[in-house]
Design goal:
The chain is α/β, with parallel strands linked by helices and 362 residues long. The protein has 15 helices and 13 strands.
């Protein structure tokens, strides 16, 4: 194993793209030849070039796997670069890129799955999982369970290896976010993620309303962009919460964001791996989240945070109030969260785990 290609043509920046970039950087640092296939001028492309990674432009559409000319060009690319390992994280890239990798005779064809949603049981997926993929990595037990939901008769459970996402613990900063520092009052609550139905920030506005009605002094800062933004703005105005809820938009400095808050809230309906939870725990922040999908794999209920039955907003609110009134509890839970991150989610440890898995399995 020497020449690794990380393949991600997504045009937006999300957890999967962040993971691809960090994995590519870490494998380069342990002396692998790394090249990243991504869409030209995408956020991933730009960030990879900033980190001095080798990049090559690729454009993938849903039916690209049916285009023989594109497949032949990709086969030629793999061979010219002597790629021996290729890693995918999206279904479109997997269908197109893995077929070309198979035809190019690449020894390790790897699918790194981060979505805790079922995979369609169709011919192309069955063929890829049965005959093309040499290594399958799920980022949580929940993700593995959903991968097998429709494909369990076609994919052996033992073929899917669980390796958690890693988070970098190096060069930690103590800076805060200026916008939070200027606008905060009371206990500072934080949430970060795309403003979408999946992330459920509308429920946080309802919770903020309940906190306000119980005379809790707080400020809730929500970081992220998405199609739920106008709905959230309407709810904030409707419940007269402009002095208590701030939509920050895209936040580049997530470390400063986490340093600036007291409690992290996650209202997601599902998560493949709640990377943002690990980010908050690394900064010793207690968590309040719903007891869904992979959250219990990161947060130990009553120890590093509170997990609330979905979607009991009253209990969610009460857990926040309990933490608001008990600084010692916040500190204890934050410390437990940090210990958990150091034990299970350190990036360099996870990279070595991936390397060992790829080397030990034919």
């Amino acid at each position: 194993m020497k020449n690794i290609c990380f393949f991600n043509s997504t045009n937006f920046w999300g957890g999967g793209e962040k993971l691809h970039l960090e994995n590519a950087i870490e494998f380069k640092e342990i002396n692998y030849n790394v090249i990243l296939l991504s869409k030209f001028n995408s956020p991933l492309w730009k960030k990879a070039n900033e980190k001095n990674l080798k990049t090559h432009p690729i454009k993938v559409k849903n039916l690209s796997f049916l285009n023989p000319i594109k497949i032949v060009k990709l086969v030629f690319f793999y061979k010219i670069k002597s790629i021996d390992t290729v890693v995918f994280s999206t279904s479109e890239d997997l269908k197109f890129g893995s077929i070309a990798a198979y035809l190019a005779g690449i020894k390790r064809i790897v699918y790194l799955r981060g979505l805790a949603v079922p995979i369609k049981n169709n011919f192309i997926n069955r063929f890829i999982f049965n005959h093309i993929l040499t290594h399958i990595i799920a980022n949580s037990n929940e993700t593995k369970k959903n991968m097998l939901k429709h494909l369990e008769r076609h994919v052996r459970e033992e073929k899917i290896n669980i390796i958690y996402h890693g988070i970098s613990i190096e060069n930690q900063k103590t800076n805060t976010l200026e916008e939070i520092e200027k606008n905060k009052h009371g206990i500072v609550l934080g949430n970060a993620g795309r403003l979408t139905e999946q992330k459920g920030q509308d429920k946080l506005i309802e919770i903020a309303k309940k906190l306000y009605e119980q005379n809790i002094d707080f400020t809730l800062f929500i970081a992220g962009e998405g199609n739920l933004k106008s709905q959230l703005e309407h709810l904030i105005e409707k419940h007269e919460l402009k002095n208590h809820v701030v939509l920050l938009g895209h936040v580049e400095d997530m470390e400063g964001f986490m340093n600036s808050i007291d409690i992290f809230l996650l209202s997601s309906i599902w998560e493949g791996f709640g990377f943002v939870l690990a980010e908050a725990m690394l900064k010793s922040k207690p968590i309040v989240a719903f007891d869904i999908s992979s959250n219990p794999e990161l947060v130990e209920n009553g120890k590093s945070g509170f997990l609330v039955k979905y979607s009991n907003l009253d209990d969610f609110t009460n857990k926040i109030i309990r933490l608001t009134k008990d600084k010692a509890l916040r500190e204890n839970m934050g410390n437990e969260g940090l210990k958990s991150v150091m034990k299970k989610f350190v990036l360099k440890d996870r990279i070595l785990e991936i390397e060992a898995y790829l080397k030990s399995t034919p």
